[in-house]
Specification:
single chain; alpha/beta; Rossmann fold; 11 helices; 51% helix; 11% strand
Length: 209
C-alpha cells in the first residue's frame, strides 16, 4: 500500500477531491453541493448523497438568515462545539445550547419531559432568527413540530439529523411535513457531527470563510 504525502493545509482540499472523484457521474445541484460534500467529508459515508433532503429554497432562506445574524441552537454541546467560531463571529452570528442550563433541567423535571423538549421551549423565546440543529434528540424535533403547528415558534431552518432508533425516522418525517424550511437526513443516520457539518457548510457559503 502506497501512502499519499499531503501537507496539513492541503488535507481538506485533497479529501474533497477524492469525494468528488468517488461520486463519479452522480449529479448534485450547485445549491446543495457544498453541504452534501461537507457531510460526506465529516462522515466518510456516501449514503448521505441519497439521505439528505432539502425543502424548496431551504438553503437560500438559511443564508439570508445567517447574513441577518441568525442564532444557531443545537441540541447537544458537542454540536455547538463543532460549529466554527471564527465563521460565526465574522457573520455576526452565535451558537447556543441550553441542555446544561439549570432552568432546563428544572423545567424538564417539573413537566415530565426531556431536556431537549425544554430547550426548544426556551429557544422559542429568542428574539432573533433561529436555525435549530438537531443531531441527537428526536424529542426536540417532535416539540418543534408541536410549536410550529400551534403557531408559537417558527425557526428559519430546521436541521433534522438525529441518529438512532426510537422515533428518529418518524420525527424527521414530521419536520418534512411541517411547512418550515428543513435539511433532513432521512432514515436512522445522523449525529451531532453531521449537524455541525451542515451548520459550518452554511456559514462558509454565507461568506464566513
Amino acid at each position: 500500500m502506497k501512502l499519499e504525502y499531503v501537507l496539513p493545509d492541503e488535507i481538506e482540499k485533497r479529501s474533497f477531491e477524492i469525494i468528488e472523484s468517488e461520486l463519479g457521474e452522480r449529479e448534485i445541484s450547485d445549491e446543495i453541493k457544498p453541504i452534501v460534500m461537507r457531510v460526506i467529508h465529516t462522515s466518510a459515508d456516501f449514503d448521505y448523497y441519497d439521505n439528505l433532503c432539502f425543502s424548496e429554497n431551504a438553503v437560500k432562506t438559511a443564508l439570508d438568515s445567517i447574513r441577518n445574524g441568525a442564532v444557531f441552537v443545537t441540541d447537544t454541546n458537542m454540536a455547538k462545539s463543532g460549529i466554527n467560531k471564527t465563521a460565526l463571529e465574522r457573520l455576526g452570528c452565535e451558537a447556543m445550547c441550553f441542555m446544561s442550563d439549570k432552568d432546563i433541567a428544572e423545567n424538564a423535571k417539573k413537566n415530565g419531559t426531556t431536556r431537549a423538549t425544554a430547550s426548544v421551549d426556551k429557544a422559542a423565546t429568542l428574539d432573533k432568527p433561529v436555525i435549530y440543529a438537531v443531531g441527537n434528540a428526536p424529542t426536540a424535533l417532535i416539540r418543534l413540530y408541536d410549536l410550529i403547528e400551534s403557531g408559537i415558534f417558527r425557526p428559519e431552518l430546521i436541521i433534522g439529523v438525529p441518529v438512532g432508533f426510537v422515533n428518529v425516522v418518524q420525527s424527521k418525517e414530521m419536520i418534512m411535513e411541517s411547512g418550515v424550511p428543513y435539511i433532513v437526513a432521512k432514515g436512522r443516520k445522523g449525529g451531532s457531527n453531521i449537524a455541525a457539518a451542515i451548520c459550518n457548510a452554511l456559514l462558509y457559503m454565507a461568506g464566513g470563510r
